[in-house]
Design goal:
With 206 residues, the chain is of the alpha/beta class. It has seven helices and seven strands; from the N terminus they run E-H-H-H-E-H-E-H-E-E-E-E-H-H.
Length: 206
């Protein structure tokens, strides 16, 4: 299936405004990348050659203004965990004012991604020996499908076809816009997804 990551933020300008901060380094002095983050979330994470490629390209896309990335891999390779889950955390750690929209073929699937990243943040605050991810969720905006950081960034989760009115996005992640082979074979469903992208999703990129 396909995941697309798009970003129009210019990091240097955000840092100049004091909006962001450089991500915390790894043990060897490098900034934490998505796979580094995953290993801190789950020590069982295996860095396969395929995921190293995904990791590298996600980092490149999120550091290149107006870039687009399409990932096509077999199921159960870890692309969603690396690109959507860890990629969202990576993007927010780079610039915690980033507004990120996560979309998938159904609202409940997108909401699951939103909940997962939110819970990653709330359970990794440096307490009881846990890793401190460096992000904090705002007390008054914590819903699974819509949450904000104390710094102003955050995540809004929506199903493909859903409304995005008044939802500007610095980063847009579309993880599995089609449910499966049946939807992929349907010209009508493919047209509906493309119409949503052209008329709604792409217009929200700021």
């Amino acid at each position: 299936m396909t995941a697309a990551v798009l970003d129009r933020a210019r990091l240097a300008a955000a840092f100049d405004r004091g909006a962001g901060r450089p991500p915390a380094p790894t043990d060897d002095g490098r900034p934490l990348e998505p796979l580094d983050i995953l290993q801190r979330l789950d020590r069982r994470t295996v860095r396969t050659p395929a995921l190293e490629v995904v990791n590298r390209e996600v980092v490149r896309a999120l550091n290149t203004p107006d870039d687009r990335l399409i990932i096509v891999m077999p199921p159960q390779e870890g692309k969603s965990t690396t690109a959507t889950r860890a990629g969202t955390l990576y993007a927010l750690r780079q610039n915690p004012t980033r507004r990120i929209v996560v979309a998938s073929y159904a609202h409940n699937v997108a909401r699951r991604f939103g909940r997962l990243v939110r819970n990653d943040i709330t359970s990794h605050q440096g307490r009881d020996g846990t890793w401190d991810c460096g992000l904090r969720i705002a007390a008054d905006q914590r819903a699974a499908n819509e949450w904000e950081l104390t710094t102003g960034g955050g995540v809004y989760a929506v199903g493909v076809g859903g409304a995005l009115t008044s939802r500007p996005a610095d980063v847009l992640i579309i993880d599995d816009p089609l449910k499966g082979r049946k939807d992929a074979d349907s010209q009508t469903i493919r047209d509906d997804v493309w119409d949503w992208w052209e008329s709604t999703a792409s217009t929200r990129l700021s």
